[in-house]
């Protein structure tokens, strides 16, 4: 470490804890990255604060998957300008996909930002803070390497619910779906070492965690970038994580349907702790649109996968992502998406109007669907999906389910809130006292759009889910 860094570190560590405010926009990958950055800075004299006005440092972890998320990031970063003028010692770091994508352009547009760092640079954040404090000039750290290795990292459990955690298993994506910027912002696929993943899961479980969600942009291709002799497939990784003693629930996200293998479907039969939920983004119900999106599967193949999953796990909850108004999407293509929704009957769906995201390839396609038409199609899709979600929830009334407790529900004393294996929020009354992560068996009595109401299952009525 250079002398000036040792000096800054020494004087810094003599100070009282400094306040760190973090604004996270976007997906679970960003949530996990924010947790890592927080832990690294807590080890270096910072303490998380919810008070932006008194912050000594601010991290904005950005998302650029949609135009709206990027605008939100820029508007938040812009709002920090005055605070920086009033407190020049304030350190502002911008991380995530917008930072990676914009780099120098962001520095020109937002000169009050001190550090611009991409997803591969988050582990260097304490060093970058030291450099900024010493040199008092902005830093851009957005280089991407194909040799990048996700460092070994053992998380602490200081923040968030104590019983569940995300574990990143890979970064980046090789698929180049034509609407998506992830391969440009998060780089090519890099799988984390299996031994590091298992060590992190074992550490978390030993610290009291009961539920793990394995994270990656396309978890099904986990291991494909590793040397053949060291390669572990995603289903094999799942089996090894599921075998960690003390782990009670296991989830994963996200999957590209083109890589969903029969071996993964079998995991739902074999692994008792694998939760009955699969997020399987389809994006469109039209083969013409799917081909233009470069998704590498057809509607027929997708439906066969849905059948396979439902055979392996009859009560599996299926959720998806949909884009409406992709360039060239005709009224018939949109109707095909509606038809697919009726066939699959998703438990819920994230749906969006198409927006072009440079440098994704679809920016070169003619945007043939007017904004008004996109809005109309989105409303039609969302209204029908809302009805299906309500119908699916209604079908659960009378079923006995195991829920993992998250805490006291907003409804007050004696009311508890938990999640089913399907990842649905279930609220129920019980005179018992629970800790987060405890399991309780309840019978669903009422369905609402976003949650279910339940009562304790009478012991004599207990059956398996
Ligand atoms: S699979 Fe496609 S949509 Fe998903 S992250 Fe990769 S490029 Fe983007």
Keywords:
465 residues; alpha/beta; binds iron/sulfur cluster; 3 domains; disordered N terminus; Rossmann fold; 21% strand; five-stranded mixed β-barrel; single chain; globular; pyruvate-formate lyase- activating enzyme; OB fold (Dihydrolipoamide Acetyltransferase, E2P)
Compose a concise summary of this entry.
The protein is of the alpha/beta class and 465 residues long. It is built from 15 helices and 19 strands. The strands form 5 sheets. A 6-stranded parallel sheet has the order 2-1-3-4-5-6, with helices on both faces.
Polypeptide structure, described:
The chain is of the alpha/beta class and 465 residues long. It folds into 3 domains: 3-141, Rossmann fold; 164-394, pyruvate-formate lyase- activating enzyme; 400-461, Nucleic acid-binding proteins (OB fold (Dihydrolipoamide Acetyltransferase, E2P)), CATH 2.40.50. 35% of the residues lie in helices and 21% in strands. The protein has helices at 3-14, 28-42, 67-79, 81-86, 96-102, 104-109, 125-135, 182-185, 194-206, 234-242, 262-270, 287-292, 299-312, 331-344, 371-395; strands at 18-24, 46-48, 57-62, 91-95, 115-117, 139-141, 164-168, 170-171, 190-191, 211-215, 249-253, 277-279, 317-324, 348-353, 400-408, 415-420, 425-429, 439-447, 451-456. It has a 6-stranded parallel β-sheet with strand order 2-1-3-4-5-6, sandwiched between helices. Helix 10 links the parallel strand 10 and strand 11 (249-253). Helix 1 (3-14) packs across helix 7 (125-135) and helix 14 runs parallel beside helix 15. The chain is globular and about 65 Å long. The protein binds iron/sulfur cluster.
